[in-house]
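User: Here's a structure from my thesis project, written as structure tokens. My advisor, Dr. K., wants to see whether a designed sequence matches the one we expressed. Can you design one independently, without my sequence as a hint?
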């Protein structure tokens, strides 16, 4: 300490930028600038706003326009943008004259400024919105999917559901139309099959668009990916079929849940019980409500009258039994 003045006493506020030990933000009246710890000016105190996010650059705002400089004050991006995003993997979204585009660190326009919105997806692709239609580009600016869809859902098993008007179909990651937008409803692919709705009825198709399960059901639900069963509803009755459409458990139940510990809750004539994978009644339909079996081999049940208790897979009370209270 030698009494030298490093930063002259002319500023209203002096602070280290968050995340930096060597970069100082200074304020004079309503203007902002930046200095290093030696008191050397990097950014003159003339800007409305400064943002430092690390990475060796400072984002500037002046006259409601944004740009960027490096830590030597060299202009990287001219102050001419309505908005400027953070660089990630060498690219940043920007907005100019009300339209969005994509820039690289050399200030080259990768995606032209003609989109209403551009956002980065988790997989690195850029989601584009133009005149209410959605598409995708990669980080080089190459268009993967043109802006022709009203909605594009997340991709699963390499296939994404798309919507045009009130009809749904499927595309590949590179934008190839795999299945045309002809369905009233469509759900994601599970084990290479997807539930779709046509003319008010549900069925299943494969990834080529071929119909695997005909459109004869009022609703269809695929169970978890490990399950071989598909739940179907027809004329207010539930049953289970396999991926070939063969009926495994007949459509005679008012409710069927997923199998847990090889037993499933089912309902018949307003009462609940348990069936096995062959459709056999293992625990009779005598309960007001049943819950799925847990890994310890017990399940919670509620009788028509009285308090709830736990049973084993034989239907025997093992906890909270009324006669044991």
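Assistant: Designed independently from the structure alone:
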């Amino acid at each position: 300490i030698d009494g030298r003045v490093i930063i002259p006493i002319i500023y209203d506020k002096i602070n280290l930028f968050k995340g930096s030990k060597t970069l100082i933000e200074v304020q004079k009246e309503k203007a902002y600038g930046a200095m290093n710890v030696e008191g050397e000016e990097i950014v003159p105190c003339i800007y409305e706003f400064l943002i430092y996010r690390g990475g060796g650059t400072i984002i500037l705002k002046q006259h409601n326009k944004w740009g960027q400089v490096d830590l030597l004050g060299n202009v990287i991006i001219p102050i001419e943008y309505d908005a400027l995003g953070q660089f990630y993997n060498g690219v940043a979204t920007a907005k100019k004259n009300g339209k969005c585009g994509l820039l690289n660190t050399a200030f080259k326009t990768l995606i032209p400024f003609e989109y209403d919105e551009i956002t980065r997806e988790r997989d690195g692709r850029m989601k584009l919105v133009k005149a209410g239609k959605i598409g995708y580009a990669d980080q080089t600016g190459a268009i993967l999917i043109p802006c022709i869809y009203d909605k594009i859902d997340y991709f699963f098993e390499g296939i994404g559901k798309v919507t045009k008007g009130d009809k749904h179909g499927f595309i590949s990651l590179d934008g190839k139309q795999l299945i045309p937008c002809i369905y009233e409803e469509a759900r994601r692919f599970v084990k290479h099959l997807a539930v779709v709705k046509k003319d008010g009825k549900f069925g299943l198709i494969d990834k080529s668009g071929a119909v695997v399960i005909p459109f004869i059901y009022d609703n269809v639900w695929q169970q978890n990916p490990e399950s071989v069963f598909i739940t179907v509803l027809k004329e207010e009755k539930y049953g289970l079929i396999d991926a070939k459409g063969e009926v495994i458990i007949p459509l005679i139940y008012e409710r069927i849940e997923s199998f847990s510990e090889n037993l499933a809750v089912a309902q018949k004539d307003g009462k609940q019980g348990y069936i096995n994978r062959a459709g056999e009644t293992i625990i009779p339909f005598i309960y007001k409500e049943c819950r799925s079996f847990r890994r310890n081999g017990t399940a919670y049940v509620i009788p028509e009258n009285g308090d709830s208790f736990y049973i084993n897979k034989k239907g025997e009370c093992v906890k909270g039994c009324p006669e044991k209270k």
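When you compare it with your expressed construct, this may help: The mean pLDDT is 92.
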